[in-house]
Amino acid sequence: MKEYLALFLRGMLMGAADVVPGVSGGTMAFITGIYDRLLLAINAVLPEFLSLLRSRNFVAFWNAIDGNFLLCLLAGILSSVFSLASVISYALATHPVLVWAFFFGLIIASIYIMRHEVSVWSASAISSLLFGAVVAWGMTALELPLISANLLGAFLSGTIAITAMILPGISGSLLLLVLGTYSFILGAVKGLDFIVLAVFASGCGIGLLVSARVLGLALQNYRNVTVAFLIGLMIGALNKIWPWKLTLSYRENSKGESVPFAQENVGPANYEALTGNESQLLNAILLFLFAYFIVVAVSYAGRRLRK
User: Fold this and answer.
1) What is the dihedral of CA 220, 225, 230, 235, to 10 degrees?
2) What is the DSSP code string of 16-53?
3) Are strands 258-265 and 245-252 parallel, antiparallel or unpaired?
4) Which 8-state DSSP code applies to residue 118?
5) Beta bridge partners of 251
6) Where do runs of H (alpha helix) occur along 192-280?
7) Closest CA to 140 of 180, 182, 183, 178
8) In a 3-state reduction of DSSP, which class is residue 264?
9) How many CA atoms lie within 13 A of 61 on its CB side?
């Protein structure tokens, strides 16, 4: 029972990490010591399912995929996602600058921690980092969402964002932000839109089965280049997380609500002059530091536990 409770709590950490655009669920799995076990369990699902179709021995299938482990982890992840969705939606609507400052701190801390995963900063690793940064920066600089907020968009978002759950580095929510479907998926979770959630989950399932093996091989054979590319993505995505933004135009979403369309990053002082709203600079800095401290503290605790 204690083991299952510990796994459930680890799942809650992963879910909390993946629902905010900052630390990834993979990072939480890595620093709490279950990352290798998670990859092995995920990679076993597809081949063992094919064996199940032949043998029809469900008990053997469940044991082969480490089913109790995956079930406890999934329960923890879902409990965090559904409990935090409404809180984050409310905070983004009422205190956007402070929330984005907190997210900004999470990502900066993740970059700081993940740089230690690159053992040698070779020319190829540096080039991979720069390429990742340029790709992410270019994607976030686009005014149009890369994926539409509809059922097809939910499926595609799931297949892409789930990759981040098993990567110690980039956050799934950060990818959703870059793709332009973060608010759409978060709203579906908050409003319990089961159709959108089911389509999103199916995309996650397919993406997870496909990407787990590919990413596992990439990390095994080209670890430095792969991790450097992920760090570059996080650096480039900071353009999207900058707290002080001037909204240039709005668009109507699928629910008929007016949401920001084109935005421009501005400095705190210019933000006050252009919008008439307080920059909340001091509080933003404090939340940034608090977020940074949380990630570093959890990482330190995870290293101690692994030792």
Assistant:
1) 160
2) HHHHTTSS-HHHHHHHTT-HHHHHHHHHHHHHHHHHHH
3) antiparallel
4) -
5) 259
6) 194-221, 223-241, 268-275
7) 178
8) strand
9) 14
To 10 degrees, the CA torsion angle through 101, 110, 266, 257? -60
Give the separation between CA 97 and CA 265, rounded to whole angstroms. Answer: 12
Alpha carbons within 13 A on the beta-carbon side of 43: 13
Query: What are 262's strand-pairing partners?
Result: 249
Structure token digits, residue 146: 């890369």
How do residues 87-135 score in pLDDT, each as one tens digit? 777 887 788 889 889 888 888 888 888 888 788 899 999 999 999 888 8
Q: Rounded to two decimals, what is the model's pTM? A: 0.70
Kind and range of the H or E element at 113? helix 96-114
> pLDDT tens-digit profile of 174-232?
778 777 788 788 888 877 888 888 998 888 888 877 777 777 777 778 888 888 888 88
